[in-house]
Every structure is written in structure tokens, then in C-alpha cells.
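User: C-alpha cells for both sequences below?

Assistant:
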Amino acid sequence: MIVGNRVICFFATEPPLFPKTKVVNGDDKMFQACGLKREHWSTTSPIRTIFHNAFESADLPYFNPHSFRKTLVTLGQKMCRSPEDFKAWSQNLGHEQVLTTLYSYGEVQQSRQGEIIQQLSTPRVESVTQSAAEKIIQAVKEQMNPQQG
């Protein structure tokens, strides 16, 4: 079931991102997967094995599961236009605190850091805000000195 922007699996308040596989003995007396358990895997080995096998079968180089989260954070850093946007992005990754996302994945590559610092030296053109500010300043001046109005 999808509620808002989160998938709810009816596990607990915070379902595991990669829930443990439920395994049973099949009719042929061999182990087989038959669903998901409502608990976390005790290690990362099973999901890493799944990823490794999937990449190998697709003849692609291996990327670990965590690299996908890092990619999502990098995408969020580029797409989010406000702190509120990034907070929502962070929550979508399962982080209660946005600082978890920033501390764990928030590095800025040197090339990007240079771009950002260069952009900060260029004044922003915000004509609507500037004209509104100018109108307020003019109104204050007129109120302070009604004779010059």
C-alpha cells in the first residue's frame, strides 16, 4: 500500500528496506523462497549476493546496494530547491533526521564546490523581490518624511 510517498508493507512502524526472505521446504524437499519475513537480515551478505548475481547475469560491473542510496542523495542534492525539499527527500530515504543524510552522503565533490563558490560571487537577480523591497523602502521614507513625498 502506498501512503503519501512511502510504501507501507504492514510490517512495523518502520519496515526493513530489505526484509529477510521467508524460506520453506518445497514439495521437492528443497529450500525455496515463499515471501518476506517481517524482520531485517542480520547481515548485508544476502542483499549483496543478490546484487552481485544480478549484475553478473546482466554482464555489468558490480555496484553495492549502498551505492544506489548515494546516487539518490546526489540526485536529491541537484533536484531539491529548498531545505524543505531536501528534508522530504531525506525522509524518503528512511532518515528521520536530515543531518543523517548530510553526514552520511553529503560530501560535495571538489569540482562542484568550486562551481558553487564561483556562483556565490555573482549577485542574484531577483527583480520581483528587489522591486518589492524598493517599494517598501520608498513607503518607509515617505512615512518618515511626509513633506518630501
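Moving on to the next sequence.
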Amino acid sequence: MPLFSFLDLNPSRWKPVLVAVIVLFTLSGAGFSFHDGTVTWFWTEMPFIGVILILAAFGSAKIWVDLDRLDLKTKTETAFREAGKSQDFKELLSARELEVLLKISEGKTNKEIADELFIEVSTVKTHINKIYKTLNIKSRKEAAKAARSTD
């Protein structure tokens, strides 16, 4: 579950701020001083501060990922509303993705789908990943259920 799912914020507004925070923490934590021909790490006497800054940069990156997921979820929900029905995703998927979704609902394996549609298994996997993202689902079982709900 995204860290900021309880906030009703536009995630894209926060991305530039997060970039600045990540860069600042990373550069501060890994900063070096060049003085009188010697190179020293800023935090030589207190290395835990550098470690904390680097961990803060990783934390900020985690927030970035959570905001990105929230943004994708919001866009998907908006696309569903624009499609007219909450379950009408036929307009959201390409014709080939709909074919792959149908084959999944028939219980076919990736190899069987690839053979029947005359495409590579890696292409099938790409289509499946796009279907999962578009429909905001995580498994073949959920995909099959979604495909059956449109019949």
C-alpha cells in the first residue's frame, strides 16, 4: 500500500520537490571536501550523519515510487470513468492485449498464447504486464475474472 494513499494530493506536484530532496541528501551524505590538495569526506568525524543522509535519500526515493503508484492508480481510475463504466476497459486495451486477455481467461499458458497468436513469449509477457498495469491487477486469476466480467 502506498505510503501517502491517505492524502488527496496531486503526486506530479511533489516529484520536483522529491528530486531536489533526493539530490540534496545524496550529495550531502556523499560529499567530499577539496582543500589544500587533500580530499576528505565531510563526515569523517561523524560518519553516522552521512549514513543518515543517504538513508534519507533512499526514503525519499521510496516516497517517489509510492507517489508514482498513486499517480498511476489515479490515472487508471480516471480512464475507467471516462470509458463510461467501471468495468468497461475494452477502450483502454489494444486489440492484441484484449486477445491475450481472452487467452488468459481460457487458461492458456504464455507459450500457448504465443503459439496461437504467432508472437514471441516475451511479447506475451509485455502484453500481460501492460494489462496488469492498465487494469490495476496483480495476477492471471484477477485478469481472467476481469475478462469474464465483460462477457
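User: Anything stand out in the second?

Assistant: The chain has a mean pLDDT of 79.
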